[in-house]
Write the structure tokens for this entry.
Amino acid sequence: MKAPKFNYIRAESRQQALELLDQLGEDGRILAGGQSLMPTLNMRLSQPGTLIDINKVTDLSGITLEDGIVRIGAMTRHVEVANSPIIAENLPLIAEAMQHVAHHAVRNRGTIGGSIALADPAAEMPACVLALGATLVVESINGRREIAAEDYFKGLYETARAANELLVEILIPAEKSDNVSVFLELAQRHGDFAMAGLACVARVSNKTFEELRLVYFGSEDRPTLGAGAIAAVVGQTWSAECKEAAANALADDLDPMTNLQGSAAMKLHLQKVLTGRALDAAIERAEAV
Amino acid sequence: MSEATLEISLTVNGEQVTKTVPVRQHLVDFLRNELGFTGSHLGCEHGVCGACSVRVDDAVVRGCLMLAVQADGAKVETVEGLNETGEIADLQKNFVERNAMQCGYCTPGMLITAAELLREPKPVSREEIREHLSGNFCRCTGYHAIVDAVETTINTRLEEG
């Protein structure tokens, strides 16, 4: 199908984008990489009054490392994140996750900020920023605001960002050198929407998980911390019993939504399987260090 | 709402083009309907099938997921352009030899996506070729012949340096 009629404004600066967002309110939609917005326009699932294109705003993209914090501009495209030596070295979880982010041509356009702003429950980057304890920086004409990833994802495509705010930057603490991370995802076709997936960040010593974060995506309406599964594992020496306890606890952590990618029961089963695999891999990676 | 339009100037297959387009028109409709470059196909029109793949500023993109107005100032190349420059002549020949198409609908997208692997050819596994082409659907061949053709082209380029 073809997109409905809308107005289009190419913002030349960050300030202009913020002013337009403020004037237009709910009627304005930011066009970042467009890899999720354009399909909904072509299918007439969304009908914005005005698209505010921020692709020409140059100071919204780039990756830098300062004082142990990786700063990623919201308009940084997936391909740039995937090829960044700063990401490879400091955020191996994101580097691993990037292999699952859509397809080659989509990664060339799609942006990390777009993915986080949209908050698709099957997307990789929201899960990663939650697992890594990132801070999301939003701006409006009234100023700048930092939101912890834990407070940012509110529900299905719902976030703490207000309608007049633009996500401008993602701040992620570099992974500690004694940490390991694992990213796993299952999809029907490589690069398609996740049927199930998780981001795991851990500190392991003598086959014991001393610290652990497990964030599940492609299940609930937003990325979800597996608190019960984490509690079942932390402080325990890794074993087959421990793996089973984590899987059992996960049933209380997750209440997956049935969707085109699979039924609730199948998703829960897959998440249990992935949990065991991720923790096995974390132990293996910790020993390889 | 009246139809909003905008004038854009861009390079398409090496030629300078200036046109006024509806802002809601996506890039492939512009290339096909306004300029007659019908090599870029429309399959799903929501970014799943890859038939509309085109090159914008040297990067392969989904032509249906980009507005024509966003290509203002850009360098756009379609399969016709790649054909003309001879950049993928060996790949095309190998597609024919290996019979890597049946209906041909996916072929331009396959060629333009595979061309990225050929730019700086390095040894790749069949699995990597499949992964690179994972965003392009073919509903006829079952992919084996396509992977064969890409693999042969890469290997030949590597041998010939």
Remarks:
- The mean pLDDT of chain A is 96.
- Chain A has three domains: 7-53, 58-173, 179-288.
- The two ends of chain A are 52 Å apart (CA to CA).
- The CA atoms of residues 9 and 52 of chain A lie 5 Å apart.
